[in-house]
Amino acid sequence: MIEDHPRVGRLQKDAVTESIVLNMGPQHPSMHGVFHMQLELSGETILAARPVIGYLHRGIEKLAEHRTYAQCMVLVDRLDYISQYCNEWAYCRAIERLARIEVPERAEWLRTMYAELVRVTSHLMWFGSVGLDLGGWTPVIYAFIPRERIFDFFEATTGSRLMPNYLRFGGVKEDVDPAEMEALHAYLAKDLIDALDEFDGLVTGNEIFLSRQRGLAPMTVDQAHAWGVTGPMLRACGSTRDLRIDTPYGVYDRLDWESCTDTRGDALARYSVRMREMRESAKMALQCIERMPAGEVRTKVARVLRPPEGEVYVRHESTRGELGFHIVSDGSPKPYRFRVRSPAFMNVSSLPHLCAGAKISEFFAIFGGIDNVMAEIDR
Amino acid sequence: MFGQGLLKGLSVTGRRMLGKTECDMYPYRKRVLPPKSRIFLSMRATPDGKALCNACLTCQQGCPDNVIRIEQDPEDRKRAVSFRVNSGRCTFCGICEENCPRHALTFTQDFERATFDKGTLTYALIADGTATGACVIVERTEPEHPASAEGGEDVG
Amino acid sequence: MNARIFLTQLLGALGLIVILGFNVIIMDWWERKLVGHIHRRPGPMHTGWHGILQPFADMLKMLSKEDIVPDRADRLFFWLGPAVAVVPAFMALAVLPLAPGFALADIGNGLFFVFAMQTIMPFGYTLIGWSGHNKWSLVGALRSAAQLISYEIPMLIVALGILLAAGSARLTDIVNAQSTVWYAVKQPIGLLIFFITAVAEMNRSPFDMPEAESELVAGIHTEYAGMKFGLVMMAEYTAMLVGSWMIVLLFLGGWHLWPLPPSPVWLVLKLYLVQSGIIWLRGTYLRLRVDTMMEMSWKYLIPASLANLMLVGVLATTFKGF
Questions:
Q1: What is the pTM of this model?
Q2: Which of A16, A291, C112, C178 is the most exposed place for a label (fewest CB within 10 A)?
Q3: Chosen domain end from C36, C64, C92
Q4: Which domain holds residue C116?
Q5: Which chain B residues are within 8 Å of A147, Cβ to Cβ?
Q6: Secondary structure letter of residue B118 according to DSSP
Q7: Which residues constitute the domain of residue A141?
C-alpha cells in the first residue's frame, strides 16, 4: 500500500538507497506528551511510520477497580487532562444510568456550560501546539492567554484549574457564584471573540500556513470510519456525526447551535473545523449562562454509592471525539470493570496511513491535526 | 492577493509588540488565589488548640490516595490524638473536605511549599491531641454549617 | 610592508572581533526582549536592568558546561565545523564599511568578497551537522546545504543588478551612489528578493530549516554543548549582522540619510532596524515546508531576480544616472 504511493514507489524502483529509522519521541520538542513514532525515512520522505505508545501507562483502568465510584472521579480527571469536564461528565452519565440517578435541571445546564468551556480551552491548547509544530512560537503563547482566563473561572468556581473533580453523581459539587458567571459572560462575549479573530489574523489567513496545510493527508469518510476516527477529524471529512446531536444529552437540544463540518478532509479542514468549534462552544456557553434556570444542583446520593449489578456503556462527544465509558458493576462499592474507549487512541491509529509518503515537516502538520493526549491513549 | 495574510500577521504581532505584557511577575508580585482554590489541607481550630475534628475517619476512608492518617484517642474515640497529612501523595481532589461532617477540614491558598526533602511534605494538623500551627484559627468550636444530611455508610 | 600599517591592521582586526562579540551580546538580549514583547511577556527581567546582563549569564553558563563530544562523532570535523562557520562570517565583516573608506580593507571587489565568504558558511553548517553522528543533525545538514546553495543564486543575481547600476563592486562606491535616492526606491523588487534570500541565508525563521526545533530537535547543532554551541550561535548572529549590513549597504543607503549629512550613526541605526525586522518575522511566521522553500527559490525567486536584472539593465542603459 505504501509502495503504491507515487512519491515512494518511484524512489524505491530507481535508486538503491538505504532507509534510516528515525525514532521520533518520546523525548522530542514537539511530541505532544510521550508519544514515540518510529519513522522509516528515505531522505526526508517517510516510507513507513509506526506509533509506539505506552510510555504514560498508569494502569488507570485497573486502579479504578480498587476505588469507590466517587474516588474514580479523580482518575477520570487524569485521563484526558485537557478536557477534564467532558471526561467527568461521561463518567457521571455512565454511573447515573447504571444507578438510575436523576440530575437536577440546573446541574445539566452547568455541566453543559463547563463542557463547552473546556472544549474551548482544549481547542486553544491544540491551536497553540499546531503553531509550535509548524515552527512558530507566538500562537501558543497567544492561545494560553484566553485559556488561562477561562481557567481562572474554573479555579474560582471549582477550586482547581486543571483537575477539578467537580461533577458528582446526580449533579455538580456546588453552585456557581453569579458574580463569577457575570464576569465570564462579559469575557466570552467580547474578549474571547477578539482573541479568536486575532488568531485568525495571525495563522488562519497566513499563506505559509495555508501552503503547509492545504491538501495535506486527505482522508475520506469511509477511511475515517474504517480507522475508527471520530470527533472533529471525522467531521472534517464531511460526516455530520456529532453525538451532541445524534444522541442528545445535557441541554444541547435546547441550545441554538450547529455542528461544524467540512468536506475537504485534509489537514486544513481539520484545522478549520476546530477553529469554528471554538466559536460555537463559546456561543453555547454564553447561552447556558443566559438561560440557566435557578434551582438545586445536586440530588442526594449515598456517599458510598452501590449501583445495582449490571453494565453500562455511555458514548460522549469529548473534545477529541467519541469518548466511551464501559462500566460493569457487581453491586459492590467498586467497579468490577472500568473500560475507557479513548477517542485519541483511535485517531492516532490513523497516523501511519496518513503520513506514509509525507515529509518530516509534513508529519508534524498531520500530527498536530490529530490533537492527541497521551494520558488518554496510554491510560 | 498573495501576501495579504502575511501582512495581517505582521500587523497582529506588531500591535502586540507595542502593547502591554500579560505576565504575573510571580516572585515579585504574588497571585492571590480564590478562596475555593484547593492547595494544602488544613483544619479549623480554636485559639486554645482545640481542633474541630471529631476523629470520625470519614476523610481517611474516603481519601483515594491514603493521604490522611488519623490516630484516635483510645479512651475518647471522638478525639484525634494525631492527624497527619502526607501532601506528597495528595492529588488535591477535595473529597475529604467535601465529606467532612463537621466542616473541620479546609484548604489553604498557600502554594509555596516546594521542598528538596520529601519527608517534609508530611505535616501534622493535630499532634498530641492539640492543633498545630498548620491549622486555621477560628473563633467558634461549633461547626460553621450544620452537618450535611447526605451522609451514607462508610466503606467497610 | 610597513610595521605601523601592520600593527594598525592587527589592532583593527582585534577591534572587529570585540565589536562582533558585543553585537552578539546585544542581539541576544534584544532578540529575547523583542520576541518577548511580541509574545506579550517582558522577556528576561532578573539579571540587571531589564535583564541586560542575561547574555553574560548565558556566556558564563556555556563556558562552564562540559564540552561533550559524542562517542562516534568525527572528532576533527566536530571541532572544525563551528570554526568553518564562524570564521568566514568574521572575514566578510573585514570589507564591510562603516563610513566612507572606513573599513578594515575597502577592497575593489568587496561585494564579491562578501558573497564568497557567505558561500563558505554552508560548508561549516554541513560539517557541523555531519560530524555529530546524529540523524537529526544529518537531516539538518543536508537541508542546510540545499537551502544555502539555492538561495545564493537569486541573491547574487540581484547583487549584479546593483553592480550594474553603481558601476563598481567597491562597497563604498555603491553606498555613495545612493547619496540622494536609495536603491531600495530604484530597485524595489531587488530589495524584496534580496531581503528574502538574505533571511534564508542566515537561517532565520521562517527559513530556519537546518535547526527547525519542532521537527529536528535542534537540527545541525543537536549534539553541540558548551562553548562550541556558543560558537554556532555566534556564527548565526554574525551571519545575521553580515546579511543585514549588506541589505543596508546595497539598498538602504548605508550612511546616507538624505537630506541629513551622512554619518555612521545612520548605518548602525538602519542595521539594527533591519535586524529587528528579521526578529519580528521570527515572532510572526510559521516555518515553511522544506520543499516549498526550495520551490520558492528555483521557481519564483531566480526568474524574478533575472527579470529584475534585465529591467535594471534596460533602465541603466536608457537613463543616464539611474
A1: 0.86
A2: A16
A3: C64
A4: 69-318
A5: none
A6: G
A7: 20-378
Interface of A with C (CB under 8 A): 20, 22, 28-30, 41, 43-44, 131-138, 141-142, 145, 202-203, 206, 208-209, 211-212, 359-365
Q: What is the pLDDT of residues A19-45, one digit of tens each?
A: 788 888 788 877 777 888 888 888 778
pLDDT of residue B153: 41
Count of other CB atoms within 10 angstroms of residue B34:
16
ipTM of the complex in this document: 0.81
Chain A residues within 8 angstroms (CB to CB) of chain B: 67-68, 70-71, 73-75, 77, 138, 142, 145, 155-160, 163, 165, 173, 198, 201-210, 300-304, 333
Within chain C, which residues score under 50 in pLDDT?
Answer: none
Q: Is B123 helix (H, G, I), strand (E, B) or coil?
A: strand
C38 reaches B (C-beta below 8 A) = yes
Domain endpoint, select from C37, C64, C91: C64
Write down the pLDDT at residue A356: 83
Per-residue pLDDT tens digits for C89-141: 888 888 888 877 677 777 888 888 888 888 888 888 888 888 888 888 888 88
CB within 8 Å of chain A, chain B residues 80-139 = 91-95, 98-99, 107
- From CA C278, how far away is CA C248, in angstroms rounded? 13
